[in-house]
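Fold this complex.
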Amino acid sequence: MILGIPFSDIVFYVVAAFMIVAAVVTVVSKNILQSAIFLIATFIATAIVYILLQAEFMAVAQVMVYAGGVVVFMIFAILLTSHLGEESFKVHLPRKFIAGAIAAAFLAIMGKFLIGQPELATATSNASAEASTFGAYALRLLSPGANGFLIPFELISLLLLMALVASVTIAKKDEDKEEK
Amino acid sequence: MYTPSNPNIVGDFVREWVPNLVAYLPATVQGYIPSAEIAALINVVICMVAMGVAGIGPVPVLIYMERKICAHIQCRLGPMRLGPHGVLQLAADIMKLLFKEVYAPKSVQTFLYYLAPILVVTAPFLNLCMIPFGKNLQVADLDIAIPFIIAVNGFGILSTMLAGWASNNKYSLISGMRSGAQLISYEVSFALVLLLIVMLAGSASLGGITESQSGNFWDWWIFKAPVLGLLAFVMFLISSTAELNRAPFDVAEAEQELTGGHHTEYTGMAFSMFYLAEYINLFTTCCVATVCFLGGYNAPCIGIAAVDGILNMVPGIVWFLAKAFFMVVVYMMFRWTFVRPRTDLLMALEWKFLLPVNLIMLVLGFVFVAFGLFLP
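Structure:
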């Protein structure tokens, strides 16, 4: 407790403020590589929020998949395409309007759910303390029971396999063309 | 509560003192500490200082070793002039780097240009927090340490590519692209080898992996799973050398081709950050190899009670550092023995050889675990 505020709350507000600033810079920045860097900053702040919620595996997965994987591939794409983002691009008004409408709708829905839950700040979790450990995650991911995620897990692996095969097909050189 | 089986002077001391450091302060000072959280933050600072010492401490030793081992492999003497056998050479180099001007080339993105050397040192220090140097001698024993190590290694890739792009230099950009492609590819087999160890040990925390190897020296994972452990160790050596961007996989720097690689344009302390990160990374990777394959802080007992008693009297941290520096020597011999492959051969090696072999080894590991094919 510092000045009557729980310490975890202070950490949350600092991280949330940083996250919002980084997210805004991501959208506003004219340099596309700088946007990508601030996107990573946003993801890392999200990971810290997961840690505050005691979901450590989620946090690590967030950093591994998004910061380490997805955004690095985006940066690859940015580096491979020359002169991208060097001159600022124009955003037409209708697009801006639609984007604003989507953002407002999202905010309204989030607000509706959050304001409807007055005990949100004081509520305790129903899950046991072991539920967020690595072993419990792994077992639930692979168990076919009521709380298990075996079928979605296998479906996603199938999807990834499809993506892998598709990327190999695209990247493969045409043998006929190579002979000529 | 877990009771250490061998004397563990350093770990027990740390275990007892660090959580209670505030209690040892004079009462008047304690009155100024407003809450338990502040006291916890003080501990965090202590841990950060400890990690700084553990990370930066070995670097001068490693750089000196690198120069001397390289020289002796090439039948030279290496630095000899400053101090006995050139031990002061490094101090002179550090002075030079400290007093060099740090400047950015014309028309670079200053923010990204200076962000890269800052980012590059984050991953090695974060990894170092997971390493158990001895029993209880560890900043955090996360049960997800292996996924954590794989995750934060992504920052290394990021900073390399950023440095390459932000330098506004063709050679740096090519180097950044090359090393980005290399690091992403080799991260896959690096992660798969570590996953194999997680599967064999039944734990993803580095403390748990070390505990799973307690006993005699043939209980270390390199020997305990016959042949498979040795294969996995070789795979780890190859993929981690590529992860470290060290020769023979240093296509990112490839001095003859790309001048200095992604840090060509950096000077002074900004350059030393890359240099520092390289050597801390080498040390952390050696520590991970020690934990995963060489039994961590466990003494190499040979099953004879009298000898084991003597071996167990040595604190775990001494065994740990001995094994870690043995690994350092292995990496250095590696560096000066093999020739550098071309970039496309490097990628072919990863995707067409290492990755399939690693996947087969994962299946083999499953067979080993299912049928219990371990040394007794």
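The longest helix of chain B spans residues 170-201.
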